[in-house]
Amino acid sequence: MWGGRFAEGPSAIMREINASIPFDKALWRQDIVASKAHVAMLGAQGIVTPGDAQAIADGLDRVAAEYEANGVPEDWDLEDIHMTTESRLAELIGAAAGRLHTARSRNDQVATDFRLWVRDAIDQADAGLEALQKAVVSRAEEHADSIMPGFTHLQTAQPVTLGHHLMAYYEMVSRDRSRFADARARLNKCPLGSAALAGTGFPLDRKMTAEALGFEGPTANSLDAVSDRDFALDYLMAASQCALHLSRLAEEFIIWASQPFGFVVLPDSLSTGSSIMPQKKNPDAAELVRGHAGRITGCLTALMMTMKGLPLAYSKDMQDDKPPVFEAAGLLALSIAAMTGMVGDSDFRTDRMRAAAELGYATATDLADWLVREANIPFREAHHITGAVVRLAESRGVALDKLPLEDLKAIDERIDESVFPALSVEASVAARCSHGGTAPAEVRKRVAEARAALGME
Ligand code: ARG
Predict the structure, then answer these.
(1) Which of 15, 35, 74, 107 to mutate to test the pocket of ligand 1 (most atoms within 8 A of CB)?
(2) Nearest-CA neighbor of 193 among 27, 34, 26, 25?
(3) Between 176 and which of 137, 242, 247, 456 could a Cys-Cys bridge form, CB atoms 3.0 to 4.6 Å apart?
């Protein structure tokens, strides 16, 4: 492609280090679409003849059909997807192919293709996350009344409902979706027409190409447009945050599926066995989602480091932008799908959850609250009295509501028998009816709002 300037061809090492076709062939659809938009504009502006524009567009369709049928050939001499496509176009239609690259550089071409690819990845992540939210909301509705222990420090804290616990992830995923939407809105400007770095003297209609490719408009500065990859970083940041959320959900399933907990039986379809221990059913999918969060955030760090300190405009370092984005997108899509299946198809053992909620003095706060409300005791003092009650119950090995009234009175005479109903786990969750609290009625409200937001009615 640049034979005019060079006396010798590249060494084998140069060819290998330079070739991006092994990975950027994933951009072939975007490359064809963007080239078709470019040549249609060149034709409309009279920069190439209508005949050549048509021949190029038809030729690009033929190249696309070949890629679709046989995959993209990997010839390192052609470096990347852009030169691979153009060279095949030349083989198919002859000299007219040479006019496609008028008023264009691979720099604005790759920036455009990559934006289109990332935009699709954002749309796919959003669709996957919507499906995950629907699964979460359905299970939360089913379990709005199912009582389980709520934890802090992974120690029994207060009873909550499984519905409330699941809806916490609905909220996290909502924010993840809004981060992807923000990334999409910032990304959606078209670099095509920025050429190598300085723009071009040809009379382009940049609005036309931007519109044809679904962009909001053309980018405003040619140097910026060919040399920033913040749109890819925005995507990776949103993906990383999302992966962190998914890893936490995965971790809950891993803990819940362990025998001492036994809160959930995972779907066989998302578990594996052991080659030596016949009884094992391992939560490998959840563990891999947890693990993938490390790789996805690694992809973010990789591209951040690639971009750090690069002067304007394009430098070849930036060719390394694509592998981490492609890798993260693949891992994220799998992680979302695995967690959607896990939420949707797991068998929640509500009997085990309920029994666990009875242990660990989960309603101690309810006793303290009762002392505040019914006996007008300041909360700090009520906390102290309750501590003494818990100590006594622990020494006897019984639950709070199994202590005889006289023993409670010995600790504080203001306690009477009306305390007992307040100490049940049902009363405890029903009492937590503040906005956003775990009371079943509150959970149902949130579920109804979520169903409406997701169009599930
Ligand atoms: N394969 C290159 C990349 O992905 C295309 C841009 C090449 N531009 C250049 N000035 N050599 O970054």
Answers:
(1) 107
(2) 34
(3) 242
Q: Is 153 a catalytic site residue?
A: yes
The conformational region for residue 79 under phi > 0 = left, psi -120 to 50 = alpha, else beta, is left
Task: List, in sequence order, every residue forming a beta bridge with 161; answer none if it has no partner.
Answer: 147
73 alpha carbon – ligand 1 mean position (Å): 18
* Distances from the Cα of 276 to the Cα of 258, 284, 367, angstroms: 18, 16, 49
Q: pLDDT tens string for the chain (457 positions)? A: 666 777 777 788 999 999 999 999 999 999 999 999 999 999 999 999 999 999 999 999 999 999 999 999 999 999 999 999 999 999 999 999 999 999 999 999 999 999 999 999 999 999 999 999 999 999 999 999 999 999 999 999 999 999 999 999 999 999 999 999 999 999 999 999 999 999 999 999 999 999 999 999 999 999 999 999 999 999 999 999 999 999 999 999 999 999 999 999 999 888 888 787 888 889 999 999 999 999 999 999 999 999 999 999 999 999 999 999 999 999 999 999 999 999 999 999 999 999 999 888 889 999 999 999 999 999 999 999 999 999 999 999 998 989 999 999 999 999 999 999 999 999 999 999 999 999 999 999 999 999 999 999 7
Task: Kindly list the protein residues whose Cβ atom lies closer than 6 A to any atom of ligand 1.
Answer: 20, 24, 80, 106-107, 110, 314, 316, 318-319
Q: Which of 153, 275, 395, 434 is catalytic?
A: 153
